[in-house]
Amino acid sequence: MRAGIKYCGGCRASFDRKAEAESVMQAAPDVSFSDAADGAHYDILISVCGCSSRCADISPYSADKIIYIYEAGAAGEAAEAITATMEDRDERQ
Q1: How far apart are CA 9 and CA 57, in angstroms?
Q2: pTM for this one?
């Protein structure tokens, strides 16, 4: 399973976007994570934003599922959503 990660511009410097993304990656070791590339399609796109405005532009990407992380501690919920997506995909195969 491929997951792209898109970060916002980081205007709220107190929120450690990279740490949240790394927590998700550690919780889902069977997923291939990379920075999102323009025009690419992902099984999951993770938009890591510093606040609830979720301003990161994800329009250059396509994904089967989009997961937003915009507050500290949300990495656990994101990892659960990834796991559920993987289980759903396995059941369909």
Answers
A1: 10
A2: 0.86
